[in-house]
UniProtKB/TrEMBL annotation:
SUPFAM superfamilies per record: FAD/NAD(P)-binding domain
Catalyzed reactions per annotation: [ADP-thiazole synthase]-L-cysteine + glycine + NAD(+) = [ADP-thiazole synthase]-dehydroalanine + ADP-5-ethyl-4-methylthiazole-2-carboxylate + nicotinamide + 3 H2O + 2 H(+)
Record-level Gene Ontology MF annotations: cysteine-dependent adenosine diphosphate thiazole synthase activity; iron ion binding
Keywords: Chloroplast, Iron, Metal-binding, NAD, Plastid, Thiamine biosynthesis, Transferase
Complex and partners: Homooctamer.
Binding site for substrate: A102, E122, Q123, G130, A195, D226, H241, M293, R303, M304, G305
Family under the similarity heading: Belongs to the THI4 family.
Protein's name in the database: Thiamine thiazole synthase, chloroplastic
Keyword Iron: yes
Top-level taxon of the source organism: Eukaryota
Cofactor: Fe cation
Amino acid sequence: MAASMATSSLLSNTRSLASDNHHRSSFIGLRLPAAAVRSHSSASQASLSVTAASAGPKYDLASFRFQPIKESIVSREMTRRYMTDMITYADTDVVVIGAGSAGLSCAYEISKDPSVRVAIVEQSVSPGGGAWLGGQLFSAMVVRKPAHVFLDEIGVPYDEADDYVVVRHAALFTSTIMSRLLARPNVKLFNAVAAEDLIVKEDRVAGVVTNWALVSMNHDTQSCMDPNVMEAKVVVSSCGHDGPFGATGVKRLKDIGMIDSVPGMKALDMNTAEDAIVRLTREVVPGMIVTGMEVAEIDGAPRMGPTFGAMMISGQKAGHLALKALGRPNALDGTLKADSVHPELVLAAAEASEIVDA
């Protein structure tokens, strides 16, 4: 009975995407400029019928045919665009290592500044880290207040309780922030790419050493396969807690003597852990900021388990630390102004000019 009453109460408090907060930055209450959004379909349409679209060409599923194309065109389109991105981001402003909830939140916050280019390096084919599900393969995502303000900003609906909110499926958060982030013209996600090492010059982290993730996983079974590099003014390490590719940033810093130890995270304590992860998000060595669960690894903070607010806010803080390091307006030193915030939902136009700096 109590469980059913609680569920009823939660459902009755579901927040709407139409909330005015959807157009406000979660930092210092800035109202984000309105932006025109081009779309091929209306988000308000309830019907999935392909013939019910209010605009655009109709087609008949009974006699459907695709437009003809040469196979070589498909190959050239993929190759040209990817290689253009590799050239463009070989020397960039910020590299974020790891596209979990903290890394995505960090890149989202940085990329509001349209003058800053952000490359995200993710070893998995599917970015998102552990944020596709809640704990123990359950669907719901629990976010403790006041981190729900970030959900309001990006437009993720939730059920509300007194001290926390529940996103009915974690994938709603992950897919939403990715769609907002990857539509921006100053962001490129390089997934299936591993950060094998760091570039260090004069005791400052100056970029990352990259390779295809499948190559990195098979160095012991093949002959030498040299990596590639990506220079950056700032590197943000959000590799997560220890694991096959976890905490690789801070573990490498220890290997090369730039930090003394990586004690590893302590046993679970949600109330201590989330505050500590946000508080300790920082530039640990010149040129490298650490965010998310990797913070717990370097500082010996408790693990937080299946609650995700600290990942979002730690990522936002790391983003503003990166902007501060670049000398850009940010929420940490009071220089962030309403007109400096990148408009929400601005889509990278298909006809936008390519960026290449050889």
